[in-house]
Amino acid sequence: MTRHGGETHDDDEGRVPQRRRRRWPVRIALGLLAAYVAWALFGAWSRFGQFDPELGSAAREYAGNQLSPAEYPWYFPTLTLHVMTASVALALVFFQMWPWLRRTHPRVHRSVGRIYIFAGVYPAVISALVVQVFWPFSVATMFSQVVPLLLWFSVTTYGYVLRRRGHVEEHRRWMLRSFGLTCLVLVELAIDPLIQLAIYTQFHTRLESNRDIYLQVKDSTENWVGLMLVILVVEGFLEYERIRSARRQPSAASRESTVR
Length: 260
What we know:
Layout: E1 2-4, E2 7-9, H1 11-48, H2 58-63, H3 75-96, H4 99-104, H5 106-134, H6 139-164, H7 168-182, H8 184-200, H9 211-259
Antiparallel strand pairs: 1-2
Helix pairs in contact: 1-3, 3-5, 5-6, 6-7, 6-9, 7-9, 8-9
């Protein structure tokens, strides 16, 4: 409650339920994110959990040009390392985006953040770059995957440096960008049916019924469209927060002047 010259107002009492109401959309969004992450990890590890060196990317298998483990012995271990470490980063995104954990247990938040970066993002980026440089599926897909990887590494590093320098708010903004790039794979899974439907309309015409070409066009398009969606959503959210914060400042200043 707010006091003005001995009088009491119920502004604060009405503000508490309002805050609670605002938390429900966040809780629902985090719950959906956790379920989606669990589903994506289950799908990935139902394949790579077999630790079968005959396996590789699903695209290579579908196109019929899977790499031989005898000729390329390091391909499967490097790809598996990427899947493992990317899974760590993806699993920890939920905890890093959880407001309650960040507010009530900041030390845990920082510790999980270090694991996210050094056991998740960095090894996932490096192993994926090795796969793309030495065993690329195609030039088109290589560029569409290398660019997001470099962005993921750069944005995460900058966010970490900002935290080390004590710029907490800017650190949060850049780590939200990192989390968005971590969730890029979830966006690609979501838009995959639509991209397939759009590209497949030309499978028997301009793509000449060639599975290899079809997958190159489909995967590279999916990567670029997914990246653009992530950038638009994250930057739109950050801009919304900036505008909302700017609107709050004049109202807070007017309340202070009224109290005085």
